[in-house]
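User: Before I run my own analysis I want an independent prediction to cross-check against. Here's the chain; please return only the structure tokens and, at the end, one sentence I can use as a sanity check.
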Amino acid sequence: MTVLMNGKALEQKILEQAKIKVIELKKKNIVPVLKVIQVGNDAGSNSYIARKIKSAALVGIDSEHIKLPETVSEKKLLELIDSLNKNKKVHGILLQLPLPKKMKIPDLMELIIPEKDVDGFHPINQGRILLGEKAFISCTPQGIMRLFEEYKIDLTGKNIVMVGRSNIVGKPMTSLLINASATVTVCNTKTKNLAEHTKKADIVIVAAGSPKLLKAEMVKKNVIVIDVGMNKVEGKLCGDVDFEAVKKKSSYITPVPGGVGRLTTACLMLNTIKAAEMQEKK
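Assistant: Structure tokens:
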């Protein structure tokens, strides 16, 4: 029987845990503060940010959506980030992607100091993840690891194929899996004979941004499938996995929606709380 991995239920569990942590911090007069910066008016970003602000309010985090016009100069954006870095009352800073094409994403991400980088995108945090050290773990990979933990899936010695190589999901996810003693193969949409790799996998994680990329004939029976994709096809949301077909061969699988996506925001709340705890100890 196939088990649907319920991201929504785990999201609620994480948010409840976060709420308890915030209550404890407030007893010490510490109120976690998160600032979300958006440049432009991307519809997807508006939706994601609204969910983040709502989740923050739910757990007791003080958050603010700072919305800048697409025409804002890089100088003004740099000045804003610098002021938030220096503000001791601000614990977490998030620069919402995508940014306007004229802006250099890696350069801007590096400007948020590592201790306030609650998205886990700074090279220092990414490097610490690679080394297995304490760091702010990127929220989507962190959510996937929480899913494995929730469903008691031991990664030790498992053959895992990671389809996707982004700095946001693929690369940090690979580091976490290696640190968990898994055997990891990293592929992407340009991999030749992708099925040759996925057919051998005990677990397949797909974060390639390619609708229904993973087909039933590309996996073995009782495979565990984690679908990170969020695509719109003919007005309907779907993942990177041909869900209905692959589900029949899976022991565990995440749906879209209702799977991994619900956990990204929840883990952002945990990172913000962690940032507040760390900074207030100094």
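Sanity check: The radius of gyration is 19 Å.
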